[in-house]
Amino acid sequence: MGQEELMSRAEDVADQFLRVTKQYLPHLARLCLISTFLEDGIRMWFQWNEQRDYIEGTWGCGYFLATCFVLLNLTGQLGGCVLILSRNFVQYACFGLFGIIALQTVAYSILWDIKFLMRNLALGGGLLLLLAESRSEGKSMFAGVPSMGESSPKQYMQLGGRVLLVLMFMTLLHFDPSFFSILQNMVGTALIILVAVGFKTKLAALTLVIWLLAINVYFNAFWTVPAYKPMHDFLKYDFFQTTSVIGGLLLVVALGPGGVSMDEKKKEW
């Protein structure tokens, strides 16, 4: 079987998957995407005192401001999740969650940890894709009205979202000489480049979803670690952040790469 025939069959499988799941995939994508915010908001409730004391001790901002920080994180994240899942004021919810990401990046000194910073940026990429989806839903209200084509802001949101999403995979690359690590790095790098430039996008994104899901369940199995151990919270945080990036990739699968992509340009050739 030639390379082109193999690729064609893989694309046929991906298209069949999309036909079967097209009604459910966007809902699953949104649920996965907001999962890390949902988990973090719930954690703020159950670890209220610990979070407040950490912020107060780290920043010396006093009891009142530390309490306001925890309250803002709790209500902002849970409120944003409810709005996104209910499809109400989605754009405002996304901007609110962007603000939460920026606030946590500074408050928890993530800015100086390149791995966590890249993962937070990948989360932002998922939210950009959600913003793009909400724009297309809003425009669908005016179906039948002549337009000049897909709006540039939406196209560039999808491009930015795709590029930011691949930062998650850069944190998963392992620089050791074992054959498995080299093979994983080569395949993973090829797939993230395809998603970033928008070539064979749906197939590449779906492959990354399967790969990332397997890695997430295997390496971030927080349910196997007792809750009283610090590693439990660390793995749980990683698990839900990765699940959110999976949600962003599922949006790419469901919506396509957008206008600024090689897949779209191929239609003009």
TrEMBL record:
Its main location: endoplasmic reticulum. It is found in: Endoplasmic reticulum membrane. It is a multi-pass membrane protein. GO terms for cellular component: endoplasmic reticulum membrane; endoplasmic reticulum-Golgi intermediate compartment. The keyword Nucleus does not apply. The keyword Calcium does not apply. Coiled coil: none annotated. InterPro entries: Surf1/Surf4, Surf4. This is Surfeit locus protein 4. It comes from Coregonus suidteri.
